[in-house]
Structure formats: C-alpha cells, structure tokens
C-alpha cells in the first residue's frame, strides 16, 4: 500500500486491524501521541488531507492514497509554522504531551470555529494548562519575555524544550526505537480479593512470539511500598512485584513477554488462573468494623502497617486544649460531614517504560517517573543488585500530578529484563491507568467548629476516614498532611484530630496534587463560612480575625515531630485583599433570569513549601570550554517548569543568559541525587541547590582567575558573561581555556536538604450562578491570589495556578471514578469520566502577593500543588451563598444539586 506522510511516499503494509496512530509511530513519527486510543483526547491528532483526525480511530489502510501530515511535517519547507510559533510565543503548553495534536487542530480552525473555541476544541484535552495559554496562542498573544545576562530570575522566559515540543521532536518515554524489543502485557485480576491457587502457563507459552510468562513464583518475595519517599519509614511494606493474593480488581497477576503486543495480549488471554475467592470489602467504614474481611492479615507494625487486624493502614490522633468544653461555651457552632470522591490524575502520558541490560551489565530503566533516584534505590534492593548496577532515567514526562511518585511498572520491567535478558517495554493502556495505578484518596471528613461573638475561633475538630484502597502507598503521609495546614493556618486554642486510613478491596489511592489537603479544606473552609454567616461577619473578615500571622505558632494536633517550618515570607493577608478587591470589580448581580441564583465563595490555603522528613537535592555546575555552563540536576521535568527555573537561577547567579546553561537532568547515571519532583519541591529544594552550586562556581571562577590572570578575587564580580576586576574584563570562555590549559575544569556542587521550610499561601474566589430549576452551574468569575514569594517566572507560575484551578474544577464539578459493590471501576475511560475541556474552564484572574522569601532561592517559594487546593472549598462556599444550601459531597454535579434545590425552591 502507498502512503504519503509529510510529503514523503511510503510503501508499507499495515498489520490487520492496525490503527493509523501506531502505524505512523512505527514509521518514526513520535509526535503522534497516545492519550487514550479511544478518540477522546486528541493527543494522536494528525491531518488527513488537511483535516484534523484522531489517528487512533482511523484504520491505517484508510490512509492509502491520502496525504497524512503529522506535527513533524506540518511546517513543510518553512522553519516553523505560524501556529507553532504562536504556541511558542504564548507558551501554550506545560508537559507538552497534548501540544502536537492541539497545534494541528488549532491551525485547522475556520473563522466560525474560532468564534466557538469550546466546541471547536472539544476533541483535544489538555490536562496541564487550564487552556488559557492555548487561547492566548490562538489570539496571537505573546507571553514570553527576554532577559539580559544575569537578569533571568523573575522574567517570563520560555521553556527551553519549547521549540522541540511544538515540532513534535521532544522525546518522551516511548519515543525511541530499540532493536529486539519485547513487549509486556499484564494479566489482571477480575476479582476484588482472591488467592491464586495455580497458573497454567502452557497455552500462553505456546502462542507464537511469547518468550516468558512471569508470575509470583518468578518475583522476589520482598514486600515493599510502591510509594516513593526519601525516608520510607512512612510507607507500609505491603506489596509484591507479583503476589499470590490479589486484593483489587485490576491487580497484576502475571506478565506475558512477547515479540509483539498482540502476542503478549493473546498470551494473557490463554493463561489459566485458578483462584480461591476470598470475602471482600469496598466501603472504608465497613472495612474497619469488627468482623470485616482482613486484607493484609498478619502484616505487622514492623512493616509500617497501622493495625492489620482492623484494616487500618495508618492513623493519627491528637488534641490540645479542651475541644468539648470550648464547643459548649461557644457562641456559635457548626458540625457537618463532607465526602470527596475518587478521582484520577489522568496525565495524558500513561505509566510505562523500557528496560534493558546495557553493555556494562547495568539494568537500565527509562520510565515515566517523577522519582528516578528513589526508583533506582528500590529496584536495587528488590533484585539484590548494587546501586551502581541499576540506572533509572526519564526523558520529558507527559504529566504526573503525583501519580508518578510511585513505582507501578518499573518493578515488572526490571523483572522481565532480568529474566529474558532482552530489552522490554510496558506501556499501560488508558483503562489500565484507571484500574491499576492510583487515585486520590476519597475521604469522609466530619468538622466541628465553634467561635465566640467576636468571630474568634474557639474550637476546631476534624474526624477523617480516608480510603487507601488495597495498598497503603502514601496512606499515612497523605492522612497526616490532610490534617495539617488546613488546621494550622488558623489560630484556635482548642483543636482535635482523629484520622484513620482504611484498607479496602479497591484500586489503591496514592499521591495526588494537594496530598490530602483539598479533601479536608472543603470541610474546614465551609465551617469558617458557616460560623461567619451565623455571626453576620463577612467571609473575608472572619478569616482575617483567625488566620496565623508571622510570629504565631502553626499548630495542628498531633504535634509534628518536625519543627523546621517558619515564615520565610508571609503574604496571606495580601492574597485575601487581592481576591476581595477583584471580586468587588463587577456588580455581583449579572443579567440572568430569576431561575439563576448568584453567590460568591472564597477559601484559603497554606502549604509547607517542602514535605517533611527529608527532601534532598544535589546539583553540579561546571564551566564548559566555550564559556557556557553545564548544569546537572536530578529532578524530572513533567510540565512543572523546573527546567526553565533552574536555568534562570543558574544564569542569574553566574551573570549569563539562560541559553548559556545546558541542563542534564533526571538520570541516576549522571549523579545529582534528587529525592524527586514532588511536594512542589522542584523550585524550592532543587532550586536552592542550583543557586548554591552556581554561587560556589562563581567563587571558584574568581579564585582561579586570581591565580591565572593575577586579578583580585575579592574585588572581582561576574558581569555579562565576564569576570570583571577593575578595568579588566575576562570572558568566561577565556577563563575556561586557561583552566583547560592547566588540565582543570572549573566546577562546583550545591546541596539542599529541604530544611528549614517556609509556607506559601493561596486564596481562591468564585462567583457562580446556579439554576434552581435544573442544578446547572455557571462560573461567572474565578480569581486566585498566590503568595509564591518573589515569582521566579510569572508566566509559568500563572500557568501553574491556571492549570491547578482547571484540574481542581474537574474534581469539584465532574470527575468521579465509580466503583461497584464488586470493587470494579465502571467508567475507566475518558469518555465516561469527564476531564475538563476548553469549554468547561473559565479564565481565572491570577494575582501574586508581593513578598520575598528569606529561605527560598532568590526569594521564591513553591507554587505547584497549592493552587489546586482551595478550589473545591471555594466552590462549595459559592454554591452555598447562592442557594442557601450547603452541599457536602463532591462532585457538585447538577443531578446531585437538583434534589435539594427542588425541595427548597419547587420543581
Ligand atoms: S489517543 Fe487518539 S484520541 Fe486519545
Ligand atoms: S501540556 Fe497539555 S496535557 Fe500537558
């Protein structure tokens, strides 16, 4: 068959049933991505005779005789297409995984479609940006700035990967060809709880192309946690690479390794697995009740499991003051129970990776991970290998949001590579991503709060039941974090916490942007509003009377072991002022019919800028022969923008421009240990290490120049790519050459252990209209103010806020993984899950407080997770203000709002 792709003719026969997406990738067009393989996300968009199509839905043979254009050929003979340039100018991407498809669709819009972007872009999902920067690209808006040497920090500089991202040339996990590659498919449990009696491999092994079938008998017996932390004393050892007991529908039972995905799938179908069905429990309240089926019987506290005899993965309790007495003496009180649902990260790039044994016998894993160094450590432990015999690295990662702070696939990849001695690949499907990786922890939160007549809080009590699913990855840390800053941001003399994380026979929960705080903030911020309402005080004023201010202790019982959180800067007061002013700009009553009820709501959040218990970054920087610099950091880039910020920090400290900083990152082979790209630590921790390394190198350059050129080190400064001493101006390239002549490379190291920690703040405001006849909801205004310290890159930081609000709106209004009584997820597809599309996301006004953090690098603080946190709480408060009804269960879908609205306002 003859195909024309990007103007080039190919003669090749697609396999029977092959879709155009995989066919194009096999021809080397890696810009064609997979987000769903079901026509729901647009990551695979190509042009077929100049019309955008989802190539995953097109049989490859249908392209015969037609012209196919992928992002790689989109510019034709030009250097760059105007739409690609527009995406660069506006920086209409973060991780960039959706970008190729988005650009091709955007460039194809006619004038009418451009007037209705919500409809025109409904087939292209972006999980990162919140769509505002994409709209800017379509409007020809330029968001990027330039910077002189030494002036990079604080500027809206573009991401260095941008030119490759918009051309589809940036490499992600699977964008490579490896000779002799074998493919892994996973046979998964259909049962929520069962013991594997036997696995008959013979029929599977008889499938042509099948090389191996790996089961629990092939896997290490060692128990571990899929959660990755620098200090893993927090994570229960309750998981095996392949276990002989399955505890949720979708758990790995066996891995079939074959020469093609089709053969591996056929092998999975032919496996004969005999199960002994065990009783199961999917509800967390039932799970911790007397007599419930036990999910990890016999596992002990030594394995860091709270109480396996009651299905408790972790628990936390504490009180100071006397909450009961304070409540009975309070002028006003409020108590209610809130529930949040199970949502998924839905990063467009699914989990997966490649593994092989390299020529030096090193087990090498290229994976889609936020934590390459911690993954290397656990792989070495699991397979009994010295650390230097394991290498883990990642290319650009297509979104993470906490979901890749786990080891879900690398263990099987390593097992398969070690057993077969062949390169292997495992790429999860979208359905596998939903049913077998991790979700946010669903929580039931009961808040009890009291205040005196002056609006001063007298008592705060939280009772939390978190559902960690079948395994306890992140169960404890998420629970502890969920009851921390939401309470410690308020001064109150009496506080009490009771928290339990329960095991159930459901897909595990894990790390998710916000790390538990969004689920508890809904309850706490509702209580603050309800107390204010009873007292006739405005929500802003109620908060001003109770928030912590510099000098106040930040307390939540039980008291933390870590006392290194301090006010490196403080902008919460400014954030409240900024949102209040912005909300007051328009009249609160827009022109809507009487059917619509309008209301405002706010919520605030505080977040420690680094997770507790150790977050380490080592950075190295050296002066290259050409006078530029080589910077090595361990942290990964998945759209969080740290690559840009680290270069800005180094360029500023070394008085150069960012294009002179070449960055190597996220590869255990290059050193530069980094705990990982999570906990919003990329700017704060790795940024501090980068700053130190660059400053140390600046000192090293001065010292060397003094020896080599007889300058005065103490009187020297770095300025515009030169060392300047009096009237002498020595170019960096000259100094590098002199060093080279002496057999020396000038280099330096910087380290940060992530302590002390500062606090960052966000305040979200919404104005909404709720239709009392249908429950439909319109967002009339969305405002967020953030205290990110001195903002390292305003454009990127605004993008983190916009993206955080958009992702959180999904969890607030639509997204929900529904699990039936048998523990099976009934909607493991984008189509049935409802990720926010362009039409769903309002433009959020973003404001920054004017602060300078004395702990963070060059005054900056982290701002990645926390914009997500106050969104649901603010939305709940806005809906309550509009309707007079306090809805206590997310998502706030129309069908959930409708019954109460009907009861209050009639049909
Ligand atoms: S991969 Fe084709 S639409 Fe998602
Ligand atoms: S930039 Fe759109 S999905 Fe990441």
Notes on the protein architecture:
The chain has 26 helices and 31 strands. The mean pLDDT is 96. By secondary structure, it is an alpha+beta fold. The relative contact order is 0.12. The protein is globular and about 75 Å long. The strands form 7 sheets. It has a 7-stranded mixed beta sheet with strand order 8-10-6-17-14-15-16, sandwiched between helices. A 5-stranded mixed beta sheet has the order 2-1-5-3-4, with helices on one face.
Sum this structure up briefly.
The protein is of the alpha+beta class.
Gyration radius (Cα, Å) is 27 Å
**Total strand count, please?**
31
Helix content: 25-40%
Silhouette = globular
Mean pLDDT: 96
Largest sheet report: 7 strands, mixed
The hetero compounds bound to this protein are:
FE2/S2 (inorganic) cluster
Q: Given the structure, what is the number of helices?
A: 26
pLDDT below 50 for ≥5 consecutive residues: which ranges?
none
Structural class: alpha+beta
Q: Strand fraction band? A: 15-25%
The main sheet orders its strands as: 8-10-6-17-14-15-16
The rounded distance between the terminal residues' Cα atoms is 61 Å
List the main descriptive attributes of the protein structure presented here:
single chain; 907 residues; alpha+beta; seven-stranded mixed β-sheet; five-stranded mixed β-sheet; 26 helices; 31 strands; 22% strand; binds FE2/S2 (inorganic) cluster
